[in-house]
Structure prediction request, 1052 residues.
Amino acid sequence: MVGWLATEPLFAALAALLLLGSVFGALLGYAAIRFRVEGNPISEQINALLPQTQCGQCGYPGCRPYSEAIAEGDAINKCPPGGEETIQALADLLDVEPQPLDAEHGVEKEPVVAWIREAECIGCTKCIQACPVDAILGAAKVMHTVIADECTGCDLCLEPCPVDCIDLIPRKQGIGFWHWPLPEDRLRPIEVIATDAATRTAA
Amino acid sequence: MRAIHTIHGGIHPPERKALSQPGKLQPLALPPSLVLPLNQHLGGPARPVINVGESVLGGQVLAEASGVMSVPVHAPTSGTVRAIERRPIAHASGLEDICIELETDGQDQWVAFEGIPHWRDCEPAILAEQVRNAGIAGMGGAGFPTAVKLTPGPQRPIELLLINGTECEPYITADDTLMQRYADQLIEGTTILAHILGADSILIGIEDNKPEAIACVQAAVDQIDAPIEVASFPTKYPSGGEKQVIEILTGMQVPSGGIPADIGIVCLNPGTAVAVQQAIIEGKPLTHRIVTLTGEALSQPCNTLACLGTPIAHLLRAVGWAPEGQQRVIHGGPMMGFAVSNLDAPVTKITNCLLAPTESELPLPEEPQPCIRCGHCAEACPASLLPQQLYWYARAKDQEQLAAHRLFDCIECGACAYVCPSHIPLVQYYRAAKGQIRDSEQERKRSDNSRARFEAREQRLEEEAAAREAKRAARKAAAQQQAESDGVDPVQAAIERAKAKKAQQDAAP
Amino acid sequence: MSLLRVTSPHTAGRQNVSSVMRDVLLATAPGILVMTWFFGPGTLINLVLGGSVALAAEYGVVALRGRNPKTAIADLSVLVTSTLLCIALPPYAPWWLIVIGVLTAVLLGKQVFGGLGYNPFNPAMVGYVVLLISFPIQMSSWALPRDLVATPGLGEAMQRVFLPSSIDAMTGATPLDLLRQNTGLLFADLMMSRPELSGWGGLGWVEVNLAFLLGGLWLLYRKIFTWHAPLAMLAALGLCALMGFDGGSSSSGGSALFHLFSGASMFAAFFIITDPVSSAVSNRGRLIFGALIGVLVYLIRTLGNYPDAVAFAVLILNFCAPFIDHYTQPTVYGTRKMNP
Prediction:
């Protein structure tokens, strides 16, 4: 057999490749099973990247169901609160192309928190039941108030309120949240501020 | 003689210090009203303790510290509190913040002070508390609450107290003037600080472009034979950065992500030392500071002992302000200062210089060209970073690579942008990238927290539903058991009782 | 009065891209003059022709890309590319060779990657290599130096460039080429039999290299680049030549002085490998970059098929530059292990 192969270079080459392929394939297959490392299931990793507002804008009832859908192959651009940064992070994790946010599911807005106008609150607890992260403090006939540090701005509490006393106010306001923008994100490198526009009079 | 080391990189921009006549202090008139921001330091804003309409005396506490990383605000002179509301402040963002507006009455009446003349016999903790109550924050530009710096804790024994008289930035001469005029107070303040810290050695570092200051400080040291070493070293920007001056004078490097106290050193500004002296000896709080007013758009550039809260416009007008049609007013020096957006903004504890240059003096930046990868920035960087790579990764928003190239070790000195032939505003890229990374960290923490809360809630609802189920099942099982033991079905019995009661009720009106 | 809001720093050093490029162009002047003295006005014709084609091409492409073409021309970077390429090309090469070379360098070597600052390879070397592989005959016929033939006047030079004919008694092999082709003679005998090889590096070539060395030293003085890459390359090349030189047998590779002062060694060390866009970023990286180029130049000259190896060595190392960068990051302040 070897003698005949030596005279037929084509068949010899084929046989050599087949042999090598099966040997290495068997080795790899064995290693894949024997040395398998149980990693985080991908849907957990996806969930860790989502903003956890549980708002439902993506069309799923919460962030975990959406993360499971993405693991099944759903599009990664359905989350408005996550915005571009989340889409980019998901694209990096799953090694797919990042896509612009799907406008059907909403647009990226600045982060907000809910705020109850206490004068109008009737203490019905409907918003407390609606909040997915238990960020509203209160009880029946007792004043309700939103714990701003825990509120994700998902706006699920707005609808149930019978007196419509909840507002969404921007979360990142004030000097503590400001930071320099990248030069390309600025309108102009040199900004001109007209000083005769608004002059403050002595109070 | 101390061995002087050198830092990597550095630049030599034109100094232009003689313009503001260092060593001379020009008194300027008090403005009609002062604006005192509640936050003139690094940390949480102070909490107001007075009300609108109240009359206050100079030195009175207007706002108390709101935590460990906070300092109180005092009235710099007597007057009436007119408002506590948002006002323009000197900040790179141009945003406003809550300030106390104090209308001065010109009487300049002060509260009585109580110093600690026998401070040598006093516990360091008490002295540090006095420093805190005097509202002292680092006056070199960062505004770190001094009392916190003076209590690094038992884990960090302090061996060296370093007074940083470098003032390496061009134009600024505030510390130079202070060291010439207040040398005795500086030495006394330094001695007090060393006592508080328990430091074995004391060093005052001054760049060699300030020979008068070196002479004055040395004379003050010699006069009382204080155990203080005065060291001078060659002028280079940015030798005055805390990390850089420590490397120059001791050869040691502050560990990345750490503070100088980790290697047994505390570094303070000479202005802070003088403020500490006044707070301990006289009990006087921090209400004034030396500000350099300079730049060719001013006809009488000088140094002045300005009242905190003085609007910038008032100071500039007092020294011959002749602005061009489009004028920059820079808070700080030309390398690290920011352009002020509103001249009503006040002078604060961290204002060391107000620079009003003409266009010909400091030309506006040219249009940025593409990076030609020349590497001059890496040669100039005092922290031995690769600014070029940081630039590319900042543009790409690649947070992992930015961390790998040590973005947070950048001291934002501007040496890289100074030497860049393509005029790229490098420092802004790094500041923006740092801000984005901090933001992302915050968002990540928030979303992790929200997820935990959401899952806790889901669990709670599940448990409640399960508990309800269990109770129902238990009741049902109990009822069945009852029926079997008595021979009577308790449910049926209950129904008949109810029917009987109802019949009774219907019968009796 | 309006307030201006600008970011810090509010002052800058005086260097800009066009001043750097201007200094580089000035530094090539001594070398060009010496080349013209020895080989006639061919190089000057190359430079003028190449320069005009380069400027026109850059202007056109940048305008097509929607950017400002005047800014692109004003920074003089394309003029440096074409100058370096035309110095490397043989004098009296046909006009179409120059045009194709410069167009390749500007369009394929630079603009297609995004213009100034974005090219991963040295554009002049890209143009050179494309020509070398496509037109080996025209690229290997260098003019003979003035002591051997009468250098042509301007008119004759123009004729040779713009109306090329196939008959050419005025060109021959370069000294490096002669050395490579030699298989039988001892080095000393070879030098006696071929007059082109007189002097350290061949007739005329020593002076040319010295002139470029002078220009390069001036650029070092002006702090246009640091000493790391040039010194590393010359040291590595010299060291390899020293180790490979066996006293002058028929198979020797040439002495260290020969290698350093012949061909494009000095020109490469100070003008080609110091192109900042395509070389390593840190100084440590530049040492490695320069040294590896030196080694490769020697290897290709002695063992390879081409007489001068600079172009290939540079392109290979351009490809390696990101790897070198990754492994030669400087020690950042505060990260070193021990404090004194």
Chain B has a mean pLDDT of 92. The radius of gyration of chain B is 32 Å. The longest strand of chain B covers residues 79-88.
